[in-house]
Structure formats: structure tokens, C-alpha cells
Write a structure and sequence with these properties.
The chain is mostly helical and about 130 residues long. The protein contains six helices and three strands. Helix 2 crosses helix 3. The mean pLDDT is about 90.
């Protein structure tokens, strides 16, 4: 049975996007090397296939430089993050930001500096809501 189509990048697609957000444009060889450094050894043809799928999904733009294909992300990190997180908030937490935050606090070790920064962000959001 085929895997259902995802509205979000797969794990491999996300890993490729992260490589390209860090440095682009990149060739297939450069992307493959970057994935290899992260412990993801893939055949050249597998990387090409995934990149072509990503171009079809409009995640990437492909251009030619000589005989090499260069790839550039067509989506921002912020747009992907917002979409994926928004989906989790809706599907897992029934749209409750409070439930997300409580789960985050329960599942993650936060140091005092992070807590202080989060408190400041929450205070700022509260002030914005009051206006």
C-alpha cells in the first residue's frame, strides 16, 4: 500500500531543506555530501529522485549551471515550521496553545535563562493582546 501524500515535507525532504537553508544553491553532489556528514548515506539516484519530487512539490527551484543542476529552496524555514507546528497544534492538541506549552514544559528541560526569555516573550504577547 502506498504511503499517503503528506502536506508537509517528509523527514528526508526536511533534511534536504535544512541543508539548502544553510547554504544554497547546491548541486546534487553537494547535497549528498551534506547528508552524508549528517549520517544519511544515500545513493546518488535516490537523492536525484527526492530532489525531483521536491521540485514537483514546489519546495525547490532547479537551475542549470553548465552540466550541473543547482537547487534553491522555494519555501522558507519559517513557512515550513509554521505549517508543521500549526498542524500538530490542531491535530494533537485540538488547537490549544496552552496544551502545547504545558506539554513542551513537561517534555523539555529548560534552563533558567530560557525560562526567563520565554517569560519575557509571553509578557510581550500579553501586552500586544491588550492593545
Amino acid at each position: 500500500m502506498a504511503r499517503p501524500k503528506s502536506i508537509h515535507p517528509t523527514d528526508l525532504e526536511l533534511q534536504i531543506l535544512k541543508c539548502l537553508w544553510e547554504s544554497s544553491p547546491m548541486s546534487v553532489r553537494e547535497i549528498r555530501e551534506s547528508l552524508s556528514k549528517q549520517g544519511r548515506e544515500l545513493a546518488h539516484t535516490s537523492v536525484i529522485t527526492t530532489l525531483n519530487v521536491m521540485v514537483g512539490k514546489k519546495y525547490l527551484t532547479r537551475s542549470m549551471q553548465g552540466k550541473s543542476c543547482l537547487f534553491v529552496p522555494n519555501v522558507t524555514r519559517e513557512a515550513v515550521t509554521e505549517g508543521m507546528l500549526g498542524d500538530v497544534v490542531k491535530r494533537v492538541f485540538d488547537g490549544s496553545a496552552k496544551a502545547v506549552m504545558l506539554s513542551l514544559f513537561e517534555s523539555t528541560e529548560l534552563d533558567p535563562d530560557e525560562l526567563k526569555e520565554l517569560r519575557q516573550i509571553l509578557d510581550q504577547k500579553a501586552k500586544e493582546q491588550q492593545k
